[in-house]
Please model this.
Amino acid sequence: MDPKLMSEKLSRWIYDKVKEAKGEGCVIGLSGGIDSVVASILCKMAFPETTLGIIMPCHSHPGDEEDALLGAEKFQFPTLTIDLKDIFNSFVELLISADPNVEAKGLSTVNMKPRLRMITLYHFAAKYNRLVIGTGNKSEITIGYFTKYGDGGVDLLPLGNLVKHQVYELARYLDVPDKLIQKPPTAGLWEGQTDENEMGMGYNDLDHFILTGEGRPEIVDKITNMNARSEHKRRRPPIPEF
Model:
C-alpha cells in the first residue's frame, strides 16, 4: 500500500460521498485510538473548515480524552466534549428498576455506551448538515467487533477496507503522535479492556488471514465462526420480497 496515495484517495472519497448526500462536512467521534485519529485526519483533509470531532467520555479512562485532544490539537480541527456518564447511569438505573435481572456491567449494558455516542453524533450531524464518519477497519468489521447501531451506526466507513496494520501505515505517514500509535487498541468499554484480549487473537493473525486466507487452524476456525455469527451486523435488516 502506498500511504500517500491511499490517504489522498480516501480523503477525496469522503469529500465525494458527503457531497453526493448534499452534506457540508463531517462529524466524527474521537476516542483517542488510532482508528479515530486517522479517520479524523482524512476528514480534515476533505473538509478543512467543516470537520467536527466529538469526545464522549462515559466512565472512560481520563487518558483517552487527553489522547483524543492530542490528535485534534495537532491537526487543528474543533472538538466538543460531552460527558455521557450521568445519562448512562440514569439509563442503567431505569433498566434495572424495570428488570432486576439487568446486569450493570454486563455486555448488553456497556454496549449502551457506543449507542449513546451514536445518538450524540447524529444530533450534531443533523444540526450542521454533515455526515457521521465511522472509524471501523476491515479487521474488526470482518469478525463483527463493533456494536450494532453503536459504533457501527454511521454514514461512511473510510477505513472499512483497510486491515489494522494498514491503518498504522497511514498513521505513520500522516505523522500521528507516537503516543497514539503505541497505545494498545481498546474499545474502552471497561477498565483494562483491550481489543486483542476481547477478540481472543492478535491483529497480526487476524490481518494475515484476511489478506491471505491462511493461518493456524484454530485461528482460521475462530475467525470463520465469528464472521458467520456476526453476519447480521454487516447487512441491512431483511425485508420480505412479497
